[in-house]
Amino acid sequence: MRKTYAEHRQDLIARYPQGVTSGGVAIDDIIQLKLQNTFNTHLDIAREMAVVMRADMAAYDADSSKFTQSLGCWSGFHAQQMIKSVKRLRGTTKGAYVYLSGWMVAGLRNRFGHLPDQSMHEKTSVVDLIEEIYVSLRQADEVAINDLFKALKTARDAGDQVAEQAAIKAIDTFETHVVPIIADIDAGFGNEHATYLLAKEMIKAGACCLQIENQVSDAKQCGHQDGKVTVPREDFIEKLRACRLAFEELGVDEGVIVARTDSLGAGLTQKVPVSQGEGDLAAEYIKWLKTEAITAENPLRDGEIAIMKDGAFVKPVRMANGLFAFQDGTGRARVIEDCIANLTQGGADLLWIETDTPNVDEIASMVAEVRKAVPNAKLTYNNSPSFNWTLNLRKQVRAQWIAEGKIHEDSYPDGNVLMSAEYDATDLGREADERLARFQVDISARAGVFHNLITLPTFHLTAKSVDELSRGYFGDQRMQAYVNSVQREEIRRGVSAVKHQHEVGSDLGDTFKEMVGGERALKAGGHANTMNQFAAE
């Protein structure tokens, strides 16, 4: 437990009975800096946020309406503003996390330029972004607590004891902006030892939760693209163990591992694992390989391999690049087996099933199969911008209503035309929007989804917002475009970033100058500061 204002004051008065140090530093200034420093190290963050996640998981097990959410953020500022917004909305940050997407690191945060999601970015880029996000969230704490101490000083100077006690209570009950990060380690960036080394750096940067996928590291693809290649289950389990060992070594005993399976959309595997006996992990993986019979017309040639299947030798279908193909239509079964193995033998805490459409029934049916083996299986789910949400949900509503006899096939057209704005105000359009609004509630209740995330929202939001401002500013509106689309909305919504100097710590600097210099302090926040124009807001 962190010490209260009174406890800090009591400790310091015992050391400095006059209320100041021998060098003239006031003990209240020391207390402020101690309380502003909400975490000593980022490893402390990882340890504490892991406990937060575990508590949230337990709450979800008891009540599926208590699912958690996050947005993918590609900078510390995006994460900071998201969490500030949540705090304004809810009065608390509970249930809100930050998702760190490998896609956005590749696309926006690496030294090689804009890259596709194929693990080509530097390993250190992910670590650097975790560090940056937590620096930004901790700075939000510093700015907010500084404001609370300013209120305390104002109350004391005015002799207002009621306001003074209110300010102290606000300081003691302050809730940090620091929240858990679910950090994407891709496919581990190499072998199991490379995964372990990177995992340690991510944890030391503050990550309490690592998400890792069962693709081949050097052939990794975005989950919503073709050409995905999975690794045998034993290989993936070794990487799950590598992540667990990294958590244990660093004392993050409650660290959370999300095991992601891309098998639903992956039709290839890197290698044929060696089975040691019937029903083992390798055997259960091999059985899904696409094979050809060995016949006189299709003999086993030099350089080819054969495996025993159902009492006969067959040839696994091998691509020109040496990869092996799975049987068509087996993705769902492989996903279920992946999930069970990852939980029961890999020690994963949460699952991630990468799907090709946002369909609650489809995901719920797979989770129901997993829960036959692991009753408390829980998921994170990617509410991906790669889905055309409007079109998918309208198609789902149309198909269901036709099957129920509610409408005729001719009532609404099939295909991409359903995306048209002309269907927004129709019964179908409204029903699809209602399902969209409750999608996360439904999937959490019916499909075991503990955590709902959107991987790339701030990428798309930034693109849209800059386009919106640019179209007006470089068009006929000019300054009106900025005021209407940005500043006026900031002021009316109470977005603190409207006072941009304050947001990045200008007042913190003034406070510190006063701590060490008193009346000599040269402050930025005087009467000539243009940020005073927003004081009334």
TrEMBL record:
A Pfam short name: ICL
Annotated GO biological process: carboxylic acid metabolic process
Name the record gives this protein: Isocitrate lyase
Transmembrane segments: none
Cofactor(s) needed by this chain: Mg(2+)
Cofactor note: Can also use Mn(2+) ion.
One annotated GO molecular function: isocitrate lyase activity
Reactions performed catalytically: D-threo-isocitrate = glyoxylate + succinate
Gene3D superfamilies: Phosphoenolpyruvate-binding domains (3.20.20.60)
Lineage: Bacteria, Pseudomonadati, Pseudomonadota, Alphaproteobacteria, Caulobacterales
Record keywords: Lyase, Magnesium, Metal-binding
InterPro entries hit by this protein: ICL/PEPM, Isocitrate_lyase, Pyrv/PenolPyrv_kinase-like_dom, Pyrv_kinase-like_dom_sf
NCBIfam families found in the cross-reference section: PRK06498.1
Active site: 222
Highest taxon of source: Bacteria
Amino-acid positions noted as binding Mg(2+) in the UniProt annotation, renumbered to this chain: 184
